[in-house]
């Protein structure tokens, strides 16, 4: 996964950033947005896919005090945990189903 900051965003301060994810779309954007929006320090979190022909997603985070990059890293780690738990639960249920 390749992530960069949107050019010109430096003047917004560390708590307001837009990150550009290459080769990502609504699948990652919506799941990550839903997690990050629940964090207490987050004022705004949203994403957009500028054009369907472009393989990139813009992801905006605005916080009260915490640097946006820390929130992004936390969100990605939390999303990984959710995905791992989902896979574990699914595999457990498949094994249980196959026993019958």
From TrEMBL:
<comment type="similarity">
    <text>Belongs to the archaeal Rpo11/eukaryotic RPB11/RPC19 RNA polymerase subunit family.</text>
</comment>
<dbReference type="GO" id="GO:0003899">
    <property type="term" value="F:DNA-directed RNA polymerase activity"/>
</dbReference>
<feature type="domain" description="DNA-directed RNA polymerase RBP11-like dimerisation">
    <location>
        <begin position="17"/>
        <end position="87"/>
    </location>
</feature>
<dbReference type="GO" id="GO:0046983">
    <property type="term" value="F:protein dimerization activity"/>
</dbReference>
<dbReference type="GO" id="GO:0005666">
    <property type="term" value="C:RNA polymerase III complex"/>
</dbReference>
<dbReference type="InterPro" id="IPR033898">
    <property type="entry name" value="RNAP_AC19"/>
</dbReference>
<dbReference type="InterPro" id="IPR022905">
    <property type="entry name" value="Rpo11-like"/>
</dbReference>
<dbReference type="Pfam" id="PF13656">
    <property type="entry name" value="RNA_pol_L_2"/>
</dbReference>
<dbReference type="GO" id="GO:0005736">
    <property type="term" value="C:RNA polymerase I complex"/>
</dbReference>
<protein>
    <recommendedName>
        <fullName>DNA-directed RNA polymerases I and III subunit RPAC2</fullName>
    </recommendedName>
</protein>
<keyword id="KW-0539">Nucleus</keyword>
<keyword id="KW-0804">Transcription</keyword>
<dbReference type="GO" id="GO:0006383">
    <property type="term" value="P:transcription by RNA polymerase III"/>
</dbReference>
<dbReference type="GO" id="GO:0006362">
    <property type="term" value="P:transcription elongation by RNA polymerase I"/>
</dbReference>
<dbReference type="InterPro" id="IPR009025">
    <property type="entry name" value="RBP11-like_dimer"/>
</dbReference>
<dbReference type="InterPro" id="IPR008193">
    <property type="entry name" value="RNA_pol_Rpb11_13-16kDa_CS"/>
</dbReference>
<dbReference type="GO" id="GO:0003677">
    <property type="term" value="F:DNA binding"/>
</dbReference>
<keyword id="KW-0240">DNA-directed RNA polymerase</keyword>
